[in-house]
Design brief:
mainly alpha, rod-shaped
Length: 168
């Protein structure tokens, strides 16, 4: 069954880009609004009122930091859940695809890789024999036995033999 390679960042991050941009824009606009309100309020307030406003602004900043932390925590939790859902969907799709591929009885990458490796070994063996002079005329340098040929190229199944994956 194919396995999913872990990505360095969760994939859900791309889907949440508009949410992050909106949060960043809101934060920027909020900071500007607070700065403008503070500047305008300072023009109309006495010294004691300005100190009270400063205290209020300090509380507002603390509250803003707390809200930002909570939003980050919520965003991470949401991304984690999205990644889990994505992993489940990929796993189910891989299982369904694997079952379909087994029913089709097609060669897998691993099968093809094994055939390529075997062919490379046989070619190397053939080249070594030719180099030693064991070829002799038009005869093939390597005699492939019946079993090796059957492993390389499966022939038609024998009468009454079951095909791989055939459940009776």
């Amino acid at each position: 069954m194919p396995t999913r390679r872990k990505s360095p960042k969760p994939r859900a991050g791309k889907a949440l880009r508009p949410v992050r941009q909106t949060l960043w824009r809101l934060e920027r606009e909020g900071s500007r609004l607070v700065a403008r309100a503070r500047a305008e309020a300072a023009r109309y307030l006495s010294a004691s009122q300005q100190r009270a406003l400063g205290s209020l602004m300090k509380q507002a900043r603390r509250l803003g930091i707390d809200i930002e932390r909570r939003m980050q925590r919520g965003l991470r939790a949401f991304e984690g859940r999205a990644e889990k859902v994505l992993t489940r969907v990929e796993h189910r799709a891989a299982r369904a695809l694997s079952a379909t591929m087994k029913r089709l009885d097609l060669a897998t990458r691993a099968d093809l890789r094994g055939i390529e490796e075997r062919l490379a070994r046989l070619e190397a063996r053939s080249a070594r024999r030719r180099a030693r002079g064991a070829g002799g005329g038009n005869a093939p340098a390597v005699e492939i036995g019946v079993r090796e040929r059957e492993r390389l190229v499966p022939g038609p199944p024998a009468a009454g033999a079951r095909a791989p994956g055939d459940a009776r």
